[in-house]
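Forum: Protein Structure Q&A
Topic: Joint prediction for protein chains with partners

I've read a bunch of threads here and the consensus seems to be that you should model interacting components together rather than docking separate models afterwards. I'd like to see that in practice. Below is the full input, 300 residues plus whatever partners are listed. Could one of the regulars post the assembled result?
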Amino acid sequence: MRTPIAYFLLLSGILFALGTMGVLIRKNALLIFMSVELQLNAVNLALVAFSRLHGNLNGQVLAFFSMVVAAAEVVVGLAIIVSVYRRSQSVNVDDARSLRW
Amino acid sequence: MPLDNLVFWVFAPVSVASAIAMLTRRNAVHAALFLIVNFFTIAVMYLLLDAPFLFAVQIIVYAGAIMVLFLFVIMLLGVDRNEARGERLFGMRTMAGILAAGFVLEMFFALRAGIGFATRAPAGFEKVNAPANTQALAKVLFTRYFFPFEVTSVLLIIAAIAAMVLANRKARAITQAELDAHENAQARSAAAPSEALAP
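Posted by a regular:
Agreed with the consensus. Here's the joint model:
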């Protein structure tokens, strides 16, 4: 293991920043959701890197739990996007401005 | 150059490049495919960090299950629907870029002040990982983290039920007023998003 841990953490930070940019810039609800997935993955990478740095498995277990939560979140989020699309025929988040329509 | 260093420097640029490509593609399917590339590179990083179980889970759950679900929904909602152009707020992209650059810089300085760029992972992780990563992880998961593990199974059941409820809801009849409002909204957002949103 010759690669310094900080490189992994910096990579994770760059990916998280790119995911944040995606959430802020994109208008398609699906693409915003994909950017959130990218952020989640970046944080998972940081957790696994910390696990390696501290020499125990707690970080890996937390990354595993975060993957489970991400799977549940994707299922519910996509169902919500589909139901919004059915109602307004659009996945553009600017079109979904009213809470009840 | 040691092998794992080489692997890192091959896959890290691919990871960042695929993330940038995902941000800039207008077509949702292309963006999803670039995201899959990104997930694979992150899986390789897990392998470098001595986490082969998470490497497999990343490929099976993320690149497999989750992205298939994404592509399924993209296909369901129509692939040819490109994103509306124009900015919602003035200077939105520039501000987002500044924010992201600031975050990366902050991360850089925090890392340099914290663990430093020379710190390598301590040796002896094989002892923690003995006899193998999957067994060691299972041991921790089913002893120390047993209760959270059970709670996540409840969470998954709730998510499955929620998805069924959300997807199965009977569509109520759409009134003419709603139809008009919707057509107006679509015409406005197609014409000029920034003007249409002004109060």
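The CA atoms of residues 155 and 161 of chain B lie 10 Å apart.
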